[in-house]
Amino acid sequence: MEIELDVKELEGFKEKNLKDRLDFIKKYAEWVKKTPNKEWSSQQKKIINK
Length: 50
Prior knowledge:
Distance between the termini: 42 Å
Helix content: over 70%
Number of helices: 2
């Protein structure tokens, strides 16, 4: 079984993935800046303690 890879298509996926990650980071940073420390830190605690 032979798999054909389209390098340009893979590069497109890579670029989209990077853009999506950076968009998420920017939105999350904005949320952290405008949300009281007590609220976002309690949400982080829930994630960390899982």
